Amino acid sequence: MESEGYAVVVAVGAPTVPPPRVAPILIPGSLIPVQLAPPLRRAVAWLVDVVPFVLLGIGAVVLVQGTKVWHGIEHGLVTKDFDTKALGLPSVSLTQPPTGAQLLQLAALAGAVLLVFAGWVAYRVLLVSLTGQTAGKWLMGIAVVDAADPSRNPSLRQAFTRWLVPQGAGLVPLPMTGLAPYLWVLKDPKNQGGHDLAAKTLVVRRRR
Fold first, then answer.
1. What would the pLDDT profile of 18-71 be if each residue is shown by its tens digit?
2. Nearest to 32 by CA among 119, 110, 146, 155
3. Quick check: 49 and 135 in contact, CB under 8 A?
4. What is the distance between the alpha carbons of residues 74 and 4, in angstroms, rounded to a whole number?
C-alpha cells in the first residue's frame, strides 16, 4: 500500500509499508501530517477559477453596453482606470442629472456586474467552506484546510477572510496589486500566501 500525502502508523510487529513519495509535514499543534500543494499547482488552479469569471464579467458588460466598450474594458483591466466615456456611460453631475433612459442603462449595467460579482463571492467562499475546493483546486488535486486542524475544511469566516485579502489588495490603485498576497506563497516555508496567513489556512494535496 502506498501513501502520497499522509504518514502511516503501524503497530510493532505489523508488516511495514513503503514510505510516501513526498514526505508529509506535521503542522505544530496538529497530529495530522499533510503534503503541501506546490505553488505551480496553485497557480494553475487559480487561473482555472479566475478566467471564466473575468470573461463572464466582460461578457455581461458587453451584453449591456455593446461591443464598442471593449477598448475601455481592456484598458481598465490593466490600469484600473475605467473611463466612463469609453464604457459608454453618461456623464452625470449635480448640474446635469441623468435622464430616465440613462438611469435604466446604469441600473442594467450595475445589476449585470453585481450578479457576476455575487457569483464570484459565492463560488470562492461557499465552495471552499463546504468542500475545501473550487473547480480549479479539484482539477489540480489540492484543497484548502484549516491550518490548526488539517482534517477540517475552513470555516465560513476563514473562507471569507481568505477571499477578502486579495480583493482588498486589489483596491490599491496600481496594476497587479491583487496578486501580491498570492506571491507570498513563493517566500513562505509552508507555501502560505498572505490570504492564507490572514485566514489561518493551508493548501494541501488531496486525491481526486
1. 555 555 666 665 556 789 999 999 999 999 999 999 999 888 888 888 777 777
2. 146
3. yes
4. 43
For residue 133, give the nearest of 197, 23, 49 by alpha carbon. Answer: 49
CA atoms within 13 A on the CB side of 124: 24
CB 86 within 8 A of CB 69: yes
Return d(Cα 101, Cα 120) in angstroms, integer.
29
Q: What is the pTM of this model?
A: 0.76
> What gap in Å lies between CA 137 and CA 144, rounded to an integer?
9
Q: Three cell numbers at 59? A: 461578457
Q: Which amino acid is residue 170, in one-letter code?
A: G
pLDDT digits (tens, 9 = 90+) for 106-137: 788 888 889 999 999 999 999 999 999 999 99
